Every structure is written in structure tokens, then in C-alpha cells.
Amino acid sequence: MTQIRFAVAGARGRMGQAVIRVLTERDLTIATTFDKGDTIDLSQADVVIDFTTPSSTLALAEACALEGEKRGRALAHIIGSTGFMPQQLIALDAYGERNIVLRSGNFSLGVNMLMGLVKQAASKLAADAWDIEVLEAHHKRKVDAPSGTALMLGDAAAEGRGVDLNEVRVAARDGLTGQREPGTIGFSVIRGGGIIGEHSVLFAAEDEVITLSHSARDRTLFARGAIEAALWAAQQSPGLYDMQDVLGFR
Ligand SMILES: NC(=O)C1=CN([C@@H]2O[C@H](COP(=O)(O)OP(=O)(O)OC[C@H]3O[C@@H](n4cnc5c(N)ncnc54)[C@H](OP(=O)(O)O)[C@@H]3O)[C@@H](O)[C@H]2O)C=CC1
Ligand SMILES: O=C(O)C1=N[C@H](C(=O)O)C[C@H](O)C1
């Protein structure tokens, strides 16, 4: 394939705008851009970069699959949207049969590196002595919580401990909560102003605390990562991928 042709979904959104800016700066080919209510025409696109909402991502997965079947070559669907319900993720994963699906709650190198560090720390620090808490802060316009990144970091910690995050997750605390249950992984969420994305994982023991954290300073970071992911994905076969595959971290 000579020049990979990009479609950008959610083109009027914060991330859509950042993606279009970086594609333009890099002189990459934009086949089409669209937002809510627009007609979707993927006929000239090889990859779709999608920072929208869970429901529109699912609709777009079907549009990618139909277009891929029409031309006899799968499209790559790069998904940055967050806030999926478990059933939506199951439905999305099924598109790995028909599309090249690459989904990540965070396209930065730093967060993907941090996941490995969190997993390693969680695997070494005994659950009865070290409590794990995931903290995140974002801008006031964010509509989902905890963030996709916080859930990825929680998953990495749970994986390090050999447990399922769904079994140990504590999503919020308020009122007379009782003491902290050993082995749980707690989440705390801040929303305010223009914060781009702050994430920390605390490992708290009786006498010491380890904090592993990441701070995003500019959302262009995520756009650049998604474009790298798209260029990589365009060369793959249909299946399910994430940023760990792109970066060779798996
Ligand atoms: N994975 C990562 O690295 C990152 C992920 N994100 C995630 O990306 C998503 C978008 O974030 P952000 O750009 O800040 O949000 P915005 O609300 O700024 O942008 C989302 C855009 O998608 C549009 N949209 C909604 N429905 C559709 C549809 N059916 N078809 C096409 N476009 C649609 C919205 O239109 P309208 O406003 O009219 O509804 C809006 O323009 C969020 O889930 C966020 O958490 C964000 C940053 C990094
Ligand atoms: O909505 C955002 O802005 C962000 N969302 C992603 C998430 O939910 O983790 C990634 C990043 O932190 C910014």
C-alpha cells in the first residue's frame, strides 16, 4: 500500500481536531472526516481514527466491516473512545473477525510503559501488606469515569496480582464505608477545569507509599500515538490489538 488514507470520526471534537491537525502537519492523506449526524463514506479510507462515544464506535465498527467486505480487504478501526459497558466491549471484540480493531484507553507511550511498571510492582508487593489505589484527574467536560486509562492501570495491577479487576474493584467511597477490604483496588476521580489527564497508582503499606504516575501536558500526544497505531494497524490482519502490540511491549 502506498499512502495510507485516513478517516477521522468525531472530527469536530477535541481529539478529532487534534488528529486532523497532526495528520495535516505530517502531510498524511485525509480521505474523509465526519461528526455526529454526517453521512459516513469510508469508500476511500484504509484506516478510521475514532475518538467519539461507545455507541457511535459500535456503529462505526459495523460500517467498517461492511466496507471491508465490499472491497475484500479489512479496514483498520483505531478506537480511542472510552466509557464502554461490558456488553459493548463484548460486541466490539466480535468485530475482530471482520476488522483490524485496535483499541486503547490511552495512546501515549508513557501510560503504556507505566502499565508494565504497575503490573510488575503489583506482582511483587504482597496484597495483604500493600493497598492499591488508582487516582485520576481530567477536565470538566469529560463524561465517563473512571477514565479508560485508570481502568487500564487497574487491570494491569489486577493482572500483576493474578486477579480479575471486576472482582476486586471499589469504584467509589462515601459515608460509613467500613474499613478497607484487603486485596481491593480502589478508584478516585477528580474533574475540573482543563486538566488534560493525570493518573497515579498508589501502593500504600503501613509505613511507606510508592506512587507511579503519568501526566499528560497536551492532548496532541494522544493524537500522535493514535496515528502511529493506525500506520501500524494498516499492515496487520483482522484481529484485536492494542497499543502494547504497536509498541512491542507485549
Ligand atoms: N484513548 C485515548 O488516548 C484518548 C481517549 N479519549 C476519549 O475519546 C473520546 C472523545 O474525547 P473528546 O475528543 O475529548 O470528546 P469530544 O466530545 O470533544 O468529541 C467527541 C466528538 O464525537 C462526536 N460524535 C458523537 N457521536 C458521533 C457519531 N455517531 N459519529 C461521529 N461523531 C460523533 C461528538 O459530537 P457532539 O459533540 O455533537 O456529540 C464530538 O464532536 C472520549 O471517550 C475520551 O475519553 C480522549 C483522549 C485520549
Ligand atoms: O477524555 C479525555 O480527555 C481522556 N480520556 C482518556 C481516558 O479516559 O483515559 C485518555 C486521556 O486521559 C484523556
Automatic annotation (TrEMBL):
The annotated active site, in chain numbering, is: H138, K142
Q: Where in the cell is it found?
A: Cytoplasm
Q: Which UniProt keywords apply?
A: Amino-acid biosynthesis, Cytoplasm, Diaminopimelate biosynthesis, Lysine biosynthesis, NAD, NADP, Oxidoreductase
Query: Which pathway features in its UniProt record?
Result: Amino-acid biosynthesis; L-lysine biosynthesis via DAP pathway; (S)-tetrahydrodipicolinate from L-aspartate: step 4/4
A GO molecular function assigned to this protein is: 4-hydroxy-tetrahydrodipicolinate reductase
By its UniProt entry, which Gene3D superfamilies does this protein fall under?
A: Dihydrodipicolinate Reductase, domain 2, NAD(P)-binding Rossmann-like Domain
Q: Tell me the Pfam families matching this sequence.
A: DapB_C (PF05173), DapB_N (PF01113)
> PANTHER family in the record, alphabetically?
4-HYDROXY-TETRAHYDRODIPICOLINATE REDUCTASE 1, CHLOROPLASTIC-RELATED (PTHR20836:SF0), DIHYDRODIPICOLINATE REDUCTASE (PTHR20836)
| HAMAP family tied to this protein | DapB (MF_00102)
What does the subunit section of this Swiss-Prot or TrEMBL entry state? Homotetramer.
Task: Name the chain's protein.
Answer: 4-hydroxy-tetrahydrodipicolinate reductase
Q: Which gene encodes it?
A: dapB
